[in-house]
Design goal:
alpha+beta; 4-stranded mixed β-sheet; about 35% helix
Length: about 110
């Protein structure tokens, strides 16, 4: 998708060995809670995948630099932190798994 990379300094957490699911959330966002459950479940299912949740309100500079306009917004990063996919709104589990496949194949 892009050559933009995100790392631990950007996210405040380590990247997964194979891929990272980055979720931008806000405090009163009901779809964010459902997204958190889906992404955490997928991360538990797939070895080497991390799920990192970022508080959009606390990280406005990062939100603006990435063009995040609503929560939840999810980024799928490959092992090097390169953004492979992004989606706004609550994702379906099957779509997350498919996007992870794309991220892992690139490694």
């Amino acid at each position: 998708m892009s050559d933009r990379r995100l790392g631990p300094a950007d996210l405040g957490a380590d990247l997964g060995a194979r891929a990272t699911l980055v979720q931008f959330s806000s405090a009163f966002c009901a779809p964010c809670r459902a997204t958190r459950r889906v992404l955490a479940e997928v991360a538990r299912m797939v070895p080497g995948v991390a799920h990192v949740e970022v508080d959009a309100e606390a990280r406005l500079e990062l939100v603006r630099s990435l063009g995040v306009l609503k929560t939840p917004t999810v980024f799928v990063l490959d092992a090097a932190g390169r953004i492979v996919r992004r989606a706004a709104g609550q994702p379906r589990k099957a779509d997350v798994i498919a996007a992870l496949g794309e991220a892992v194949r690139g490694v």
